[in-house]
Amino acid sequence: MLFRKPKAASLRTCLIHKVPARQYAENKNAFYTTHAEFVASASSLERIPHLQGLPEVVVTGRANCGKSSLFNAVLGRRSLLNTSQKAGRTRTLNFYHVGTEPPKLVLVDAPGYGARGRPEWGKLFDGYLETRKELKRVFILFNAKHPLNTFDTMMLTHLSEILVSQRERFTLQAVITKVDDISLDEVGGAVKRIREGIREVTHLCLPPIVTSAKMQPPFGIEEVRKNIGQACGLKL
């Protein structure tokens, strides 16, 4: 029984003692869960849709970092976005309306980066960041099981450079995912390593939000929702 996975209640108690208190208030937010729908996919800059100037946030991360699971948890859905164990499933920019009609914001799912990323995905993502005036925040995801690697530091550096070149037109924030996949004894150290790794690369990244999309109820998701709303200038 040495390798038995800890119960969710025990993990939640552990997390509550290791992350800021505001991150574990999990009240289901009707704004996000009442209405969310897929709008369009874009495989090139020319195919990026015009969405009435609604504020947008985009999510990126190393391949298989849990983007789809986080999206589904934020939107209170099980399968609005397909989840996969296979890295590199997301290959286009995917746009989703959020909020009761008329929609109030747009969530954008970007292809993952890293060893299984592709140059054309990076070109598409960079073009979006540099030209999309509606963009308000980039969320970059880090899997709690792994410290930052070369691809992560390169992406953080790259995003910071774009942020400066764009005169900080949008903001950058980290999200730590999959904390339920590591043992109770490792949670504090894992979160600390990622936080310190981010600080060593850039001072432009907002403090990371610690999350688990699999826990019931999900952990840290309400904090993600709150930060999305704040970035988009919405009072929810």
From TrEMBL:
Record key words, sorted: GTP-binding, Magnesium, Metal-binding, Nucleotide-binding
Organism: Amanita muscaria (strain Koide BX008)
Single GO term (MF): GTP binding
Pfam family, one: MMR_HSR1
Record field: transmembrane: none
Taxonomy of the source species: Eukaryota, Fungi, Dikarya, Basidiomycota, Agaricomycotina
UniProt cross-references to InterPro entries, sorted A to Z: EngB_GTPase (IPR052279), G_ENGB_dom (IPR030393), GTP-bd (IPR006073), P-loop_NTPase (IPR027417)
Protein name per its UniProtKB record: EngB-type G domain-containing protein
GO cellular component assignments: mitochondrion
Domain EngB-type G: 53-234
